Amino acid sequence: MRSMGFMVAAALMASGPAAAAWQEYPTPELGYVVEFPAKPTLSTGMYKTVLVPSATAHISTVKEDHAVYVASVVDLLNRKEEGATLLGEAEFNLQLLGDLNGQSISRVEPGKDAIFGRFITIDCRSGKTPDQPGQTEAARMWFKAITGMDCPDKARLTANIFFNRGRLYLIQGINLPTDQDASFGPAALRFSNSISFYGADGKRHAADNVQ
Predict the structure, then answer these.
(1) 41 is a domain residue
(2) Domain-embedded: residue 81
(3) φ and ψ of 19, to 5 deg
(4) pTM for the whole thing?
């Protein structure tokens, strides 16, 4: 189901040749679909935090001059009952990357099929003061391991994160610093809001097919 944020972003991008390049890239083996402006590069990384000693992260990436789009899916299939805690830890680590610009509840799929997550926007900077020594450095290492890149100073990170059926999903659009404000441009918002999920039966909700 498309959120209001996605519809606004899509409207802003409706003109010009770049809009035609965006399309869905289904990944049924990982239970989700997301839109990219080009075919993503696939890789794997290691998800390692205080609560997760080691887990595999499946990474899909498209890099442009002005932005980077990264979908990271972490296999935590043996920890399905800990979704709320693991989602909260991921959100905590994201906030260590810089200054919190926005934070809200996110929802994908309608009605009884709804999957709730967190939507967070960070203005990245390397000098964030943590609660405890070493937390900022650990968070930046964690982020690089699951995205393949740093979040550079003055970049705007927009992340839509969910825990669903044993997997942690981090759908992250990064507006890179330019001569203009890093928050400029709706592509990162469009990307982070484009996620939809396969159901337990392997099918997608009918609303996902409405453009």
Answers:
(1) yes
(2) yes
(3) -60, -35
(4) 0.88
